[in-house]
Amino acid sequence: MALLWTCRRNVIGRFVNKMSLKGRLMILSSNSYYIQPITSFATHFTCSQRSVPLNFRIFGRLPQNVVRHVSSSNSTSVSRAIVYSTEDISTKKLPLKDSSQLAGPTALNQKDGRVWFHAGVGHIHDDDSGPPRNGEDKVNSKQMVKAMLSYVWPKDDPDIKKRVKLAVGLLVASKALNVSVPFLFKYAVDTLNVSPDGNILNLATASDTVLTYSVALLLGYGIARAGAAGFNELRNAVFARVAQHSIRKIARNVFLHLHNLDLSFHLSRKTGALSKTIDRGSRGINFALSAIVFNIVPILFELGMVATILGFKCGPEYAALSVGCVGLYTAFTLGVTQWRTKFRVMMNRAENEAGNHAIDSLINYETVKYFNNEKFEANKYDKSLKKYEDASLKTSTSLALLNFGQNAIFSGALSMIMIMAAHQISAGTMTVGDLVMVNGLLFQLGVPLGFLGSVYREVRQALIDMQTMFTLMTVDPQIKTKPNTAPFFVTPANAFIEFRNVSFHYVPGKPIFQDLSFTIPAGKKVAIVGGSGSGKSSIVRLLYRFFEPTHGEILIGGKNINDISLDDLRRAIAVVPQDSVLFHDTIQFNVHYGSLDRPMDDVIEAAKLADLHTSIQTWPQGYDTQVGERGLKLSGGEKQRVAIARAILKNSPVLILDEATSSLDSITEQNIVDALRRATQGRTSIAIAHRLSTVMDCDTILVINGGRLAEQGTHNELVSDSKSIYARLWSTLQGLNSIKNS
Ligand SMILES: Nc1ncnc2c1ncn2[C@@H]1O[C@H](COP(=O)(O)OP(=O)(O)OP(=O)(O)O)[C@@H](O)[C@H]1O
Hints:
A hairpin with a 2-residue loop joins strand 2 and strand 3. The protein is built from 19 helices and 17 strands. It has 742 residues and is an alpha+beta fold. The strands form 3 sheets. It has a 7-stranded antiparallel beta sheet with strand order 3-2-7-4-1-6-5, with no helix packed on it. Strands 13-14-15-10-16-17 form a 6-stranded mixed beta sheet, sandwiched between helices. The radius of gyration is 36 Å and the shape is elongated. The N terminus is likely disordered. The structure holds adenosine-5'-triphosphate. Adenosine-5'-triphosphate binds next to strand 8 and helix 11.
């Protein structure tokens, strides 16, 4: 059953209108509910500052008017909401009078306190960059036109403006010449057909003047046609720079914007689809602009001219018929195109699906091979291709219908006008030249009209693409530098870190930290250990402000990291992540990436410290060795050493090593541990490791368990308490080592 929620008060952020999400309604108590997402992006489901209705489809039986005043203390829950059944939304809203009348768990047909529901407003997304999410309110047409104009009419670029003006001038000239063509033809025909006294001309006795005059007119006809085409092409050439310039500018801006968005945003999006959004959106601007300025407006302009000429020259019925024909033609075209759009959407979707599948499958080449799943992958790919094939067939068939209908309308109107003209010619009120002119004018009008369907469809698509892209531009990063934040420099001397009563979760209902507190003194080497999934890497993400705690504070140098600019904070921390992903470039580029303005000597020094330099020298191309996509041509250990080298090159007062040596053999690991000891001298360093042997010499070891700091101390202190988690971990490790060595 579909329900309407009206959020009354903003809880977390802005609500996304027209979205499609899946989640489950958690019932905490008789009047306390919250939405538990089951897809990652649904995490972003929030209420609006505005009242925004949203349809929910609940799987299971639900009474008509179900919940009133949904509330919960949980930060991700709806603080206050009213739920109505959809049957009532258009006419009257029927909230329950009393929240005590809430449907109980049985009525909600829920299991273990959960009701599964599917929410959606029926918005068709033909682009799997996904529906708008957190903070993404769809931009409206006005905002879009404004944004579009800012690129084609840039305030600070007179050259572009000049080009736009010139292009419009060329357009008017081209249309004026175009309309003059049938006139010149008419006069040429009349000159050759009718003598100055109004009788049929006998060409055998006609004077040379008649011939010269008609030749001049026909020459003019040719020049006008060529001129119209020439101006048209010139206009395209002049406008090309405007279009390309705006595409480049907007693509750059969107790209930069994407880099400013939160990690959580990127984790919930498909990267391929995002790049498509930029690509399609920026091209969409060009297309929509060109189509509107050089197609739709010119058609209207030409129709106006033709109708006026026909009205004055041949009579109002001609004007009415031609306008009527164009009106019917347009209505038919738009109607059928609208109907056909869904096939196009299906095609796009299937194409994206097939593309995503192909990429995913090829990226996982090795996994596919390890499990002999080539056939399975091919079948899955073929399923998407089949969908594409079906949709593509429907697109072609419906196009045939569109073309036929357009031709039928146009030919019918043309014949009627010709018959009317023939009557007038026989009555002597029109000449044969007039008939030729009417025919020419209508035919000329038919040429751009023939493109109307595809232009309309493409413009609609372009507008959707632009909307997706501009909507993306409206997404505000949740994590950003506060305005007027004063510069703050973390130095090795003040790089002490404190987590103060930090609570955090990625997904509501699954807390990662609860009241986590610890301090890391400046210049000390601290290790964080704990079971897999205990939240060790999450500590790093919180410190780096990739995510924000739901409660508590994180301080560096005695200052809350929220009060430090992201730039200052992130400059102070160098991270060697758990999965080191490299750029598809050379080793040198990848190490240099740690600090692009440092000289090559420093790059080599960092590589030496990371025990990488010797390996690099054994490769034929040395530092110019290509590492392959995501560094796939390097071994796990080599990748880790590149990541360590670039972190060393960054030269930050805080160095974080997240399982930085997990892929190394014992000798290399020992070399690196020694090197890191030197590199971390005088810096604050945090080492996350499963292999406790690598953290034995740390000044403090923090043991995380159950979202809290369970233990802390030096290795010896922790091992001496045989009941400690650390001691148990240590003895397990020792046991494993003795099995290995026996
Ligand atoms: N973006 C995310 N969205 C939802 N859950 C997440 C996300 N990132 C991590 N988690 C979950 O948070 C928990 C802690 O993850 P984290 O990576 O911090 O653990 P860890 O202690 O570093 O684990 P390991 O030792 O296995 O690397 C895990 O259960 C993980 O599944």
